[in-house]
Amino acid sequence: MPQTNWAALHGKAFAGARALVTGGAGFIGSHLVEALTILGAQVVVLDDLSGGTEENIRPFGAQFVRGSILDNKVLDGAARGCKYIFHLAALGSVPQSVEQPRKYHDANATGTLNVLEAARAAGAARVMYSASSSAYGDAPGLPKVETMPPAPCSPYAATKLAGEALLACYSASYKLDTVSLRYFNSFGPRQNANSAYAAVIAAFAKALLGGQAPMIFGDGLQSRDFTFVENAVHANLLGARNAAPLAGEAINVACGKAVNLLELAAAMAGGLGRADLKPKFGPERAGDVKHSLADLTKARKMLGYEPLIDLETGLKPTLAWYRETMK
């Protein structure tokens, strides 16, 4: 059940519109599919289920196509007749990208090129791309502003940045409007915790619910602008319905507030009734960024975006979901 009243925010803007969501059976994608169906869109989901499940979208009645964005025939078929294309399909782990850079390039860079070609063939009006704050790397200066030179620290970051460049050039070269939404550390229900590469909130929840101390890689003072998933959904919807061309611009999507991992671990342990479980520490991981905090000026100006749900509010349904699913 969403925390946000999507109809109150977006009215009938998507009623009857056909939309493709690549990676729609995954974490962020399934929340976007839910919102689009509530808003009356005709939703097609393309997902190879490497990171998502059909269970994530079954309640919403979307058309499901099992397949990969690396399969051009399947992708072209899924995109046919779509006004909007929301491109979320990607491989998403920094540590795994360090181990398997070629696999990440294929999925994230070549896959994005394929999506843009399918969108162009379909005559889509706009492509919304799930970009990443990892594009900033460890470049000095906070908050992160879109005018900063990119400084990717991992193959994952580089492949997501390559996607941004492709979206910008397609906007410049073809009659296809695009926008790159740079998410900052998304979290929420349906985020997979059953992976060695799980995102930090998912990993902490799994450990705490299993009666184990959460593992922090580094000293715990690294900070993140944690962004509840419905903020990312809202940015996608605003991007799709924006009246003016977005011309391949990269736009931060976050809450504009940083929390360090020691603070996060304490808040989550308290929320799950396990304040007795203090973090344990491991070595820093290659490619990890020390600090992340978004400037939202451009998002406000171009999209009319404001964060809907802050970390503290978003943690409540997130922890409740993990508690329920990890029984």
Total helical elements: 11
Give the helix/strand class: alpha/beta
Please report the total strand number as a whole number: 13
Order of helices and strands: HEHEEHEHHEHEEHEEEHEEHEHH
User: Based on CA inertia axes, which overall geometry fits?
Assistant: globular
Q: What portion of residues belong to β-strands?
A: 15-25%
Going by CATH, the homologous superfamily of the domain at 15-189 and 227-256 and 293-308 would be NAD(P)-binding Rossmann-like Domain
Describe this structure in words.
With 327 residues, the chain is of the alpha/beta class. The chain has a domain at 15-189 and 227-256 and 293-308: Rossmann fold. Helix content is 39%, strand content 16%. It has eleven helices and 13 strands. It has helices spanning 6-10, 27-38, 72-79, 94-99, 101-122, 155-173, 200-209, 229-241, 261-271, 297-303, 311-325, and strands at 18-22, 42-47, 63-66, 84-87, 126-132, 177-183, 186-187, 215-217, 223-224, 227-228, 249-253, 259-260, 280-282. Strands 3-2-1-4-5-6-11 form a seven-stranded parallel beta sheet, with helices on both faces. Strands 7-10 form a two-stranded parallel sheet. The longest helix is centred in the middle third of the chain and has 22 residues, at 101-122. The radius of gyration is 19 Å and the shape is globular. The chain starts with 5 loop residues before the first helix and ends with a helix.
